[in-house]
Design brief:
Layout lengths: L11 H11 L4 E5 L5 E5 H17 L7 E5 L4 H12 L3 E4 L6 H11 L1 E6 L4 H7 L8 E4 L13 E3 H5 L16 E7 L7 E6 H14 L9 E4 L11 H8 L2 E4 L6 H10 L4 E4 L1 H14 L8 E4 L6 H9 L3 E7 L6 E4 L11 H8 L4 E2 L3 E6 L14 E7 L10 H7 L6 E9 L5 E6 L3 E4 L2 E4 H8 L5 E11 L3 E10 L8 H8 L11 E4 L13 H7 L10
Helix pairs in contact: 1-2, 1-3, 1-8, 2-3, 7-8, 9-10
Bound molecules: adenosine monophosphate (AMP).
């Protein structure tokens, strides 16, 4: 029997329409690329999103078209999120840390019609101009006074908005209409696009709001260090107006001192980001001898939160919430706010628990399996590949049949490429990664792509790229090379030269080590596991 309730589709713009009405005093504070601080309420953001939707329509954007953003965290980026999805188009956030080659690939693959860029990235687009589609329109997210001189044909964001009415007749869309697109690194080859729907985006925001209530609530002031160009800033731009949380957008400066100052000036209550950023903040807190005054919670994810970091903040009274997730999960899967019965445990035991990645959010299911796909017990000891399913988990990749085919197992669960165990009370503990990727400062590096490029060197007989733990970046790549001629081995800079143009410079290996042979698995592949063990304790040149 069918339920008899209205079938009102979930819609992203409804979040902002609600926030604008319900939380008149809350909104967005932004450090602008122009150098100053800007403030707007959610009501103002909603009105400007209406103007923006008219402007985009005027540029020819219609339902299903992709509109790209290349921008820091700020109010204009926020307006783009809502205007693009609201009008039925797809907001494609581009990660500016990608290599030029990858960026061109995703702009072409997504078939972006318009790209909206911060001032910072105009030179990037200028350098790519020859390879970009001829009809791609470029909008610079600034006002007339700050428009740069450029050989490119640039449109000005504020000029486009100014003549437009604030009311927009937002279309009613089926809730599975695409709303956002975010590419993530493949283990090899080109990035793959996670295509979020209105339904998954709204549900994820709701799940997040009930799962991390210490961060998001009416009157809270959250600083998303995690970028809006990478997995929707972990959903905060949606959870903000939904819950009445103000968003303090840091713009381009993410170093410890800038983050500290902004937290202090804007009375930030919680902040979300990757461990590399918190290391910078730790240094600043130690230097100044005090915490930013209102800071109450840090959400740490993207890479494992080191125990010393959790201890540092917890000892000073900041609640640390360790979280795990991925682009394909919108992204949050688990979070480690301790359940009530654990909050009275001795501090050491609480910290022990917080080093784990936490328990599942509502809307997310976890399972671990062995290599044959057989489920393993969740007993805190069995270790296997982690699979997930849920309302905000991808079912495949945008326009990528091959990757989509490989994404789900026979039961329809998504394979995360993480290796984990799960305790009987549901705490996830990430142990390793089976995907051949390295995560540096929260961003991916494909070891296979580096290896393929290095193999082109005539002095390289074989090679493998592995991650080495790094105190600041979490992991950094090194390349282990079997030389053709031990008497005349290749040098690191020669290997870098082969990578130039194909990979971003920060993705290049930090060191080259020579070996006589690489360890092999039974199936004739290089055993990265054995190799990593061989390099256990290896100290990188700059990490001494
Ligand atoms: P991304 O898609 O870029 O958000 O990266 C997702 C991946 O980052 C996961 O599959 C994990 O490999 C890793 N990751 C995210 N959060 C954590 C965490 N708390 N601990 C360990 N690894 C993490």
């Amino acid at each position: 029997m069918q339920g008899m309730m209205m079938n009102m589709p979930l819609s992203v713009i409804e979040i902002l329409r609600f926030g604008a009405q319900a939380f008149a005093d809350e909104g967005i504070v932004s450090v602008r690329c122009e150098g100053d601080i800007h403030r707007e309420t959610y009501a103002e953001a909603y009105a400007r999103s209406g103007q923006l939707a008219h402007a985009l329509k005027g540029l020819g954007i219609g339902i299903g078209d992709r509109v790209a953003t290349l921008a820091w965290n700020g109010y204009r980026h926020f307006e783009l999120y809502y205007a693009i999805s609201g009008m039925g188009a797809v907001c494609h956030t581009i990660n500016p840390r990608l290599s030029a080659e990858q960026m061109v690939y995703i702009i072409r693959h997504a078939e972006d019609r318009v790209i909206c860029t911060d001032l910072t990235f105009v030179p990037v687009l200028e350098s790519l101009a020859a390879e970009l589609p001829q009809d791609l329109k470029i909008v610079v997210m600034t006002d007339r006074a700050h428009m740069p001189d450029s050989a490119l044909d640039l449109l000005c964001y504020e000029d486009l908005l100014a003549p437009q009415p604030t009311e927009y007749d937002w279309p009613t869309l089926p809730e599975d209409t695409a709303a956002g697109l975010c590419y993530t690194s493949g283990t090899t080859g080109n990035p793959k696009g996670a295509l979020y729907s209105h339904r998954s985006t709204v549900l994820h925001a709701l799940f997040l709001a009930v799962s991390v209530p210490r961060s998001v609530y009416e009157g809270a002031r959250v600083l998303p260090v995690v970028p809006m160009f990478h997995v929707n800033s972990w959903g905060l731009p949606y959870a903000g107006p939904l819950t009445g949380t103000s968003l303090i957008m840091p713009g381009p400066s993410l170093d410890g001192a800038s983050v500290y100052d902004l937290m202090e000036q804007e009375k930030v209550t919680a902040s979300w980001g990757v461990p590399t950023v918190w290391l910078g903040l730790q240094g600043e807190i130690t230097k100044r001898g005090a915490l930013p005054k209102s800071l109450d919670q840090l959400v740490i994810g993207g890479s494992a939160a080191p125990r010393s970091m959790i201890e540092f903040f917890e000892e000073k009274g900041v609640d640390v919430c360790h979280a795990w997730g991925m682009t394909e999960m919108s992204p949050i899967g688990t979070q480690c706010q301790l359940p009530k019965h654990m909050q009275s445990l001795p501090r050491k035991e609480q910290i022990d628990a917080k080093t784990l990645q936490g328990r599942r959010m509502f809307g997310v299911d976890l399972k671990i399996c062995d290599e044959d796909g057989t489920r393993l017990p969740q007993d805190g000891t069995a270790v296997g590949e982690l699979f997930v399913r849920g309302n905000a988990v991808v079912s495949g990749y945008f326009n990528n049949e091959e990757a989509s085919q490989a994404a789900l197992d026979a039961e329809g669960w998504f394979g995360t490429g993480d290796v984990a165990c799960i305790t009987p009370d549901g705490f996830l503990s990430i142990q390793d990664r089976s995907k051949d990727l390295i995560k540096s400062g929260g961003e991916w590096i494909s070891s296979i792509d580096l290896e393929n490029l290095a193999m082109a060197h005539p002095k390289v007989a074989n090679c493998a790229v592995i991650a080495i733990p790094h105190p600041k970046w979490d992991e950094r790549p090194i390349i282990v090379v079997v030389p053709q001629d031990a008497g005349d081995p290749p040098q690191l800079d020669e290997i870098h030269a082969l990578m130039d143009g194909h990979m971003a410079k920060w993705q290049f290996p930090d060191a080259l080590e020579l070996v006589d042979a690489l360890p092999m698995t039974a199936t004739g592949k290089v055993s990265k596991l054995t190799l990593r063990r061989q390099f256990d304790g290896y100290v990188l040149p700059d990490a001494g």
